[in-house]
Amino acid sequence: MINVQEFARRLSTLGADAFTSDDVVDLATAADVRISADLEIEATLAQRLLDQISPTLPVTGAQIAASQWPPPQPSRPAAPSVSFSSPGTVDGPADQPTRPRRSGPAHSGRRPGSRRTG
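The structure assignment produced for this chain is given below.
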């Protein structure tokens, strides 16, 4: 459980807007909940308050009221979104060389050191 000031601070870290204790009281009024500055906010109440915020935030009431903040991230990072302009073949870079590549030095037909002795 967290207090109103901590709830406001955590909300501020999630979005572009800065929240104050007064903003939290306004959220509570909109949710038809009586709240005071010294009231401890638990997960259910936190969720009711979060439901009043639009657009919705990427946390649940339980996460924002938990003792650990910020909430733990998933162990695997989310893959970045990818968009394709058109279905079909994927073209390579335009500056790809057209001749085949060789690795190593150029050879003149014979391997050095393979001369025949007479």
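Interim note for the steering committee: DSSP finds four helices and two strands in the chain. Residues 4-14 form the longest helix (11 residues).
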